[in-house]
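sanity check this record:
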Amino acid sequence: MHRLAAAMLVLLCCCCLFLATQQQQQLQPAAGGNRASPSCIPHERDALLAFKHGVTSDPGGVLSSWRRDGRHDEQDCCRWRGVRCSNRTGHVHELRLGGGGPFRPDLAGQISPSLLALDHLEHLDLSGNDLAGPTGRLPEFLGSLKNLKYVDLFGIPFYGGVPPQLGNLSRLQYLDLSNSYWLGSMNSTDLSWLLSCKRKPVAVTPEPYKEELDASGNSFHHPMVTSWFWNITSLRFLYLSSTSMYGQFPDALGDMTSLQVLDLSDIYYDYDYQDDDKNMRSMTMDLKNLCNLEVLNLKSTHLYGDVAELFRNLPRCSPNKLQELDLGWNHLTGMLPRWIGQFMSLVVLNLGWNNLTGHVPYEIGKFSNLTHLNLKRNKLDGTITEEHFASARSLQYIDLSYNALKIEISSDWQPPSTLEYVSFASCQMGPLFPGWLQWNVNITHLDISSAGIADRIPQWFSDAFSNVWFMNISNNQLNGTLPADMGSMSLLQLYLSSNKLTGQIPTLPPNLSYLDLSNNFLSGLTGHSATRFANLRELSLFSNRLTGHIPESFCKYQQLFVLDLSNNFLEGEPPLCLTEYMEVVALSNNSLSGKFPSFLQNLTNVEYLDLSWNKFSGRLPMWIGSLTSLRVIRLSHNKFFGSIPMNITNLACLQYMDLNNNKISGSLPIYLSNLKFMANTSMVGCFQALAILDSRLNSLSTVWKGQELNYGSVKRIEDTSMTSIDLSSNDLTGEIPEEIVVLDALVNLNLSRNHLTGVIPKGIGEMRSLQSLDLSRNMLSGKIPATLSNLTFLSYLELSYNDLTGRIPSGVQLDTLYAEYPSMYIGNIGLCGHPLQNNCSSERHAPKQGGLGRTEEGYGIPFFYLGLGCGFVVGTWIAFGVLLFKRNWRIACFRLSDKLYDKVYVLVATWARARQTQTD
């Protein structure tokens, strides 16, 4: 009986268990036959679909799974990408839609207010997307999602203030509104809303429960903000990099004893932002009690004062925990104290870009944990020896460049550490090549430029530096040939310019992107070396001894955007297949010939074009106006003829135009107002590649103040002081269009040595930026406009040898110019008044003029003197005729002939003026 009762009880329990299991399975939603949580709430699904509707761009299909139609499981928003629901209630708890940043945003559009329906939302991550919407403001309605604990809107280009409604988020533990991509700037004048947050203020690490504050890249202008930041004494991590704030470094920093990381780099106090001297501040706060401080970053904070005093304020608690100290880009002075060795735990020490003086103390060599040492661009002197690195077993990065240091290290010395980044630029290392570097086979970055090395490249060069990807040994006196085995190296950037290297260019590493061998004595490229560079972006070989034709293999450089072959002995026509991505083409001072290169028509990105001092001929093509990115065009000293294409005025970014010494004829283009850069009306989009090119590119020069002057590197043309038009020494006719006066950004205008007629534009005084104006040796007539005296920046004026008449305008500026250039009016017999000696009282009796020295009675010039002068010029040309075949004498001969011509002209004009006086 008992056994039967027990069996019945067991059977009953099994039945109950079975029924309970069946009931639980019936309560679960069907999702592929098995689901552990309920499906999403319908009105929350509608809210998410409304959010999707506010997204205008989704190139990666992030929200492609967000659909209302389809199978039942596709309608379940808890299964959508980036959506996470509660396993118990089905409410949306998390929305994780972080994107790839401003250059690769996953989503674009706006944040829809429909998110308010997600009243159980705790985690919101929309970082790295372009969701600022049409207003660009941070949505106020986010403050109504009171369950939010985690909000990440990093990188979204919001601007304006932070809405105080965010203070309603009483459960907030993590908030990131930073914008390190510089697409926008939050400008918070009041952070009182943060004080209403009952829990930890803000945190911006993947671990949201640390006591950490990151407000980098924002602007705070209210006084209470400063005091609020510095009074959160529980903080362990404080990041205020690139922040604009009110006030000074407070003394209260010394009370934040829990701090482990303090990053104030690039912080900017805007109380006196227009005066950098007043914006500088000394490091007066006492940080000695910050015994937990591991990282102190004060880079670029306008600190000034004695560096030793600053070190006295740093924590020296036992054990010393300070590992990273960055004081670079400041105004610190004085000598490094020898007791710097007390900071034995330092791993990173950056004192670069200051004004430190004296010797580098040997105590730096005692930092056994130091991996990164930067003393770049100070005023340090003395000698660096092996003792400075005796105990530096961990050193990987060293930069002592641009100091007056002498590196005296034995070639046999083997460093105790394995260096990876080495920069001794402008330090004295020579004359021998520093042999001790051969033991650092892990070097990836090597800069020993301007180091006084006068030696051959050693045999071990290619093997020892096989891992180097950046190498700069320019501005030395390396001689001999390049190693034949460089093809196996890993180089990506190689700079060997301004040395004395000879021979042919051997096979070089195939992955090179930047190659600069300019200013050497190299004679050519081997056939193999000219075909391997599939990734080459910049090639600078100017000022060598390259001969022959430009190789057709250059057409294979599909990534090339800078090509500079100037100042060589190249000849023939350039290849017609150069890459369409080219932005800089510099082929000047060779013997290249043919018509205007047709391959240029495809270079829609070209910004710098230099074909000067060659043998090009023919007409300028009409399609030149389609090169709308052009900022510099130099075609001088060629044989181009025909008129200037009218559509050249389509070049809105054009800043520098030099066509002098050709055979250009016709009139000046009328629509000069279309040259918007020169008219100072539109420069948007005109600062691109040229703004980042460095000084390795060939020099600019122009005829300025009567001489051909050198402007340095291409990089400098981003400065508007280079705005120039030079059309001198051509066959231009007609009048100077009045529209030229709209070019008020023009600094240099040279129209000399043409056949221009008519009057000088009356509004020329509106060209306020003009510093040099040369209209000499034309057939201009009429009076000199009185507005010319308005050009207060004018430092050179040349109006000689025209048919100008009347009184010379008065003005202090013109008088000063005449004192410096007394020949500026010569050859204009009809001019009178101060500063000339011709009295304008007889102006009404002045005879009419034609050409030089002409009167109504005829030419009246003794042909004997004219023939004598011409014979003198011809004889001089014969004497120098042989020299004309040498390229280096061209400019000298041109200048000499001009001076001789001027002297003969002065002689004849003086006689004519004396004859005219006698006649009157």
The mean pLDDT is 80. The longest strand covers residues 379-384.
